């Protein structure tokens, strides 16, 4: 009787643990896929996630940091804010750039034009129109940044993606086999 109770507790804890691992993996994969395959055109509740790929904003943001940007009214952006935008010209073409706003002007048609520059850069970026904006950076995620940096290595990929998936699959197989064995013994 005691062993049966321990078995049930183990099963409940195992299900909870597997569910947490699955939700974390699925959430991470969903965010990464959304970011990669939509070319950052889609947002989740007006939020987007970006990964820093250059040292232009060091020491504030390091390579591999994951930033959360929120879509905001362009008129709310001030000098000193960090914004993410889609580059249109030169080396910036079709790249997501996150830089600091160093100046704001209005175009002839009344739209805002932002002057941006990386903290580590000497020269300003090409001007950014308000229709290029993805959002204002509101948060640098420590935990997701750490996971991203670890998972982007071969060892980290195996430790945090492959091994948990293998654990879930093997524990399900073992659970099914144990259930069959319990049913067989109960019939005897």
Measured by DSSP, the beta-strand proportion falls in: 15-25%
**CATH class category label of one domain:** Mainly Beta
The DSSP helix count reads 3
Radius of gyration: 24 Å
- What's the β-strand tally? 7
Give the name of the CATH superfamily of one domain.
Umud Fragment, subunit A
Biggest sheet: strand arrangement: 1-2-7-3-4-5-6
Output the helix-strand order.
HEEEEEEEHH
* Inertia-based shape: elongated
Q: What distance lies between the first and last C-alpha atoms, to the nearest angstrom?
A: 17 Å
Task: Decide which structural class fits the backbone.
Answer: alpha+beta
Low-confidence stretches: none
Largest sheet: 7 strands, antiparallel
What is the topological layout?
Layout (H helix, E strand, L loop, with lengths): L1 H36 L9 E5 L14 E5 L11 E5 L9 E11 L5 E6 L10 E2 L3 E9 H10 L2 H34 L1
Briefly summarize what is shown.
The protein is α+β, with helices and mostly antiparallel strands and 188 residues long. The chain is built from three helices and seven strands.
Q: How would you characterize the overall build of this protein?
A:
By secondary structure, the chain is of the alpha+beta class. It has a domain of 100 residues: Ribbon (Umud Fragment, subunit A). Helix content is 43%, strand content 23%. The chain is built from 3 helices and 7 strands. A 7-stranded antiparallel beta sheet has the order 1-2-7-3-4-5-6. Helix 1 runs antiparallel to helix 3 and helix 2 crosses helix 3. The protein is elongated.
């Amino acid at each position: 009787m005691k062993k049966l109770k321990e078995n049930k507790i183990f099963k409940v804890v195992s299900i909870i643990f597997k569910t947490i691992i699955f939700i974390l993996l699925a959430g991470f994969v969903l965010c990464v896929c959304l970011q990669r395959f939509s070319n950052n055109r889609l947002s989740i509740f007006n939020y987007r996630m970006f990964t820093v790929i250059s040292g232009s904003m060091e020491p504030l943001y390091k390579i591999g940091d994951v930033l959360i940007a929120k879509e905001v009214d362009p008129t709310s952006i001030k000098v000193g804010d960090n914004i993410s935008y889609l580059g249109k010209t030169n080396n910036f073409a079709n790249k997501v750039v996150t830089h600091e706003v160093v100046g704001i002007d209005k175009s002839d048609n009344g739209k805002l034009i932002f002057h941006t520059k990386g903290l580590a850069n000497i020269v300003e970026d090409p001007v950014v129109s308000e229709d290029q904006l993805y959002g204002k950076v509101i948060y640098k995620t420590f935990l997701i940044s750490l996971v991203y940096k670890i998972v982007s290595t071969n060892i980290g990929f195996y430790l945090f993606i492959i091994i948990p998936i293998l654990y879930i699959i093997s524990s399900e197989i073992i659970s099914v086999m144990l259930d069959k064995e319990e049913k067989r013994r109960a019939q005897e």
